[in-house]
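A favour, since you know our structure tokens better than I do. Go ahead and set the record down below.
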Amino acid sequence: MDKTETKLTPFLNDDTTVDYPDFDAMWERLESQLPEPGTPLLPVPPETKKRKPLRKAAAIGALAALLAAAPVVAAVANRWDTILSYKDGIRSALEQGLGQTIGQAVTRENVTITVDTAVVDENRTALLFTLNTRDKTPEEGYFFNIEEVEMKDANGLPVEGWQQLNWDPATQTWRGYFEAAWAPSEVSSNVMLTFRNVKAISPVERELSLNPMEEKEQSFDILQDGIRQLTVKPFTQGDKMMLNSTVVFDQPELKDWIYPRIGVFHGDTRVREAGIGVSGKPDDNGNYTGQQSFLVSDLKQEPVAYKLLYDKEVKRINGDWTFNLQLDKQRMESGTVKRELNIPLEYLGKKMTLTQMITTPTQVRIKASNERYARFPFMSYSLEVDGTVLRGGIADAHTNPEETVFRFEIPPAVRINANSSITFVAKHERVERTNAKAPIPLREISEEKKTITTDVGGYSVLWTYYRKDGSLYVQSESAEAEFGGVNQTYMINGETREIGKKITYGFGGDGNNQATDVYEGFAGKDADIYIFWYYTEDPDKELRTVLIP
């Protein structure tokens, strides 16, 4: 199962009204930059012996060696292109020769893991490694992964991090990295790195006699590879067909990585989904659920076939590949600059103060203080350095509810110096609004779909409602692009509120403002529903703040 989806699904698991996380912001990792030439260096201790001046011949020899080493450093960086596509800062450090060579290998049962290089600075620690299996390749249907990567600091405390492993077809090697938003407190520090359990997985396809156009619940007995049953509930939403699936496992531990989903095919070509899916959310019984969307027009195009897709474990090597490493951030120290900022930002009543900027050879990290759990009303963030845009955004969201951390990658071609101009850019306005208090009247509720158009904060919103399988379904959407969608609805029964259960999940900024809530067991003919809040969006709005000079 995709690790990102695994991490996101806990947020989708609450029936109470919640402001669902901005997943796009979660995807944004950041990194940073180099020291400024004008920055004072640490003083040399008096007892340090002075170096003798280099003789001319020695200087020429050193220069020649440096020039000869340049293509070697570039070659080292190029080896990691397949894994560092979105890690410009790490690649920049490698190209500058700032990586710490490790070169330690451990072999168990013909599987060799080699920790190749460490990149350690004040903002993060990244460890680059390879995995060689002498086994089948992805071209032959085998995909390897590592069940767990664990790092402990010098005191034996775990360091939280994440891993990624990609296949490098050029070298027929698996290349990966383990990264943590952690740095040793000392210049040099011992850590223990453990790779636990290596397994090979292979993709499986199982044909389904699914007919989503019937828009009724359909169940399939799978009875293979630890999967007992698949249930699919299709329903249309505008021009899309939503497929809500539930998977019952005979082996519940499989749901952490097997990643079951529905594939739609025209011949041998897989049909592209019409939006971002959600997978892994447990239902009330703990079963695995998912949601996917496809264009109705694609499903009407013949021939069309449906398949259950999932991953199957075909080989496993249990055990630990353990490395005792001494990490050193010495070469990064002269390129690290900390600045206190105290720059207040305010937009539409929301406030945030940029408090600190830490620049290292691999990333810029900016800390900001805010009101508890408050969100600044923008979707994306970037940093402009002398006209070059650095990729990044919000990271470590809600680790501290009163602090937001931004991280920005430094591309290899960017160098920050004392004369650099740095601008913090917030873009794509997304505002939560609570001024829509009027009830939405749903009348003559039946299995026939009915619609009503109401005014929500000055925007025309189309509501579609109907009863199905004993529950009331309420859909909302607007043709106005600035309307960002309704977060959730509720009914009032006496002095209590009955909250609609969200069965579609929006991703802010994706251009889709459709939402669907269901009221299970609703038997009435009429209902008034209310909105907690709605969003408005303007992708062109931005707020620019000069940090330096």
